[in-house]
Specification:
Strand order of the largest sheet: 3-24-23-22
Number of strands: 24
Structural class: mainly beta
Order of helices and strands: EEEEEEEEEEEEEEEEEEEEEEEE
Number of helices: 0
Helix content: under 10%
Strand content: 35-45%
Shape: globular
Distance between the termini: 38 Å
Largest sheet: 4 strands, antiparallel
Length: 391
């Protein structure tokens, strides 16, 4: 058990259990009426005009079974329980169960208490490099976990949408479009390395799943730069029954937000997570990173996306030079507006978003989470930020 001193005088106790799996599964017949499931969200959630900052929590460095907790790249919430996936291609491949509690003004406790190893369809441990998990969702209809893997494009490993049991065993892989598969021979087409399946959402009507690319396919346009470019990414609907992609639309990325500093040159902007909150309406988490900044170099925004009138791009081989209507996007929240209220003025490597529980005043909430990359490059945080939904 760790005692963690947060900002101000509040002391939060964070406990860690060394369990490796769980029998505490969601019970659809015993839901707390005060809790808001991820999907379907219901009519009161369908209008979102912005967000208000509630609080930040930094998850301290810790371990379960001598395995470091880190790389927290995806988060989901259902029926009082939280699910967090670890972005690592090194065994054990894993997700976590957690208890996260907050109110109108602050986090009161964060308890990452269970680590579940993700396994193959025979129940065996996954080898290094086979998957690279990014996003996670609990499907309360099937009582299973869905996660996306970016694979490794440069090593010829395809990205994947994978369904697993709550105990971590693979149930199935869903069929992805051919143009999402790793292409190591033709450098003029296919997905970019480390820019594939970053986002995942349950369908609002509970009939399938949406997956989103982080960066444009090579044939669809360039990666974003400081100046404006046509850089569309594809967001694809996969039906539960057919297990196939049935619809797709394009989402235009912003330019990179800041010029790299201190003699460095790396910069990127991508779509890191999606969340459907009504039919054809999404929250999109877009993150720009530029190297050379002591504040982390990240510029993170939440957009409201409407795909009602967007072209179905499934049959369009290349978006470059073709006519199509992308989804519309409206800025709802820029994390720059709260940078001064965050630890060391840091908006960290935010990659995950989920709807959380309803507050006592009836307000809906969202929580975002950041991936600390196990501090591989420079000190980073596993950062949780809670926001109140403004209808």
């Amino acid at each position: 058990m760790l005692s963690v001193v947060k900002k101000g005088l509040l002391i939060v106790v964070l406990s860690v259990s060394c369990s490796s799996n769980s029998n505490d599964t969601p019970n659809k017949n015993e839901e707390d009426p005060n809790e808001t499931p991820t999907t379907p969200i219901g009519t009161t959630q369908n209008t979102i005009s912005g967000f208000e900052f509630i609080d930040e929590f930094i998850v301290p460095n810790q371990e379960i079974n001598s395995v470091a907790i880190g790389g927290l790249s995806g988060i989901d919430y259902y029926n009082g329980k939280w699910y967090i996936i670890c972005d690592t291609s090194n065994p054990p491949i894993r997700y976590y169960e957690a208890d996260i509690v907050y109110n109108e003004t602050e986090f009161t406790s964060v308890d990452i208490h269970n680590m579940i190893e993700i396994k193959d369809n025979s129940g065996g441990s996954l080898a290094q490099g086979v998957v690279d998990p990014e996003a996670i969702r609990l499907d309360p209809i099937t009582n299973t976990i869905l996660y996306t893997s970016e694979g490794s494009i440069s090593n010829g490993i395809d990205p994947a949408l994978i369904e697993i049991s709550l105990e971590g065993k693979e149930i199935r892989k869903y069929t992805l479009s051919d143009n999402f598969k790793a292409n190591t021979t033709d450098k003029s087409s296919g997905p970019r390395h480390n820019g594939v399946l970053e986002g995942l959402s349950l369908d609002y009507n509970s009939k399938g799943y949406w997956v989103s690319l982080e960066l444009p396919l090579i044939e669809d346009g360039p990666e974003p730069i400081i100046t404006d470019t046509q850089s569309p990414v594809r967001i694809t609907y996969i039906d539960k029954t057919s297990k196939m992609a049935e619809r797709q639309f394009a989402y235009e990325l912003d330019p990179v937000a800041r010029t790299p500093e201190l003699g460095t040159s790396f910069a990127v902007n991508g779509l890191v997570e999606i969340l459907e909150y009504d039919t054809n309406k999404f929250l999109a988490l877009e993150r720009s990173f530029s190297s050379g900044y002591i504040d982390g170099g990240n510029t993170v925004k939440i957009y409201k996306v409407d795909a009602s009138n967007a072209t179905n791009t499934l049959s369009i081989d290349t978006l470059t030079g073709n006519d199509y209507t992308p989804a519309t996007k409206t800025l709802l929240f820029n994390f720059e507006t709260i940078r001064g209220q965050l630890t060391n003025n840091t908006v960290d490597n935010i990659e995950g978003i989920t709807f959380g529980p309803t507050l006592n005043d009836g307000s809906k909430t969202v929580v975002v989470i950041s991936d600390n990359n196990f501090n591989s490059f420079f000190p980073q945080y596993n950062q949780l930020i809670a926001l109140k939904v403004i209808p």
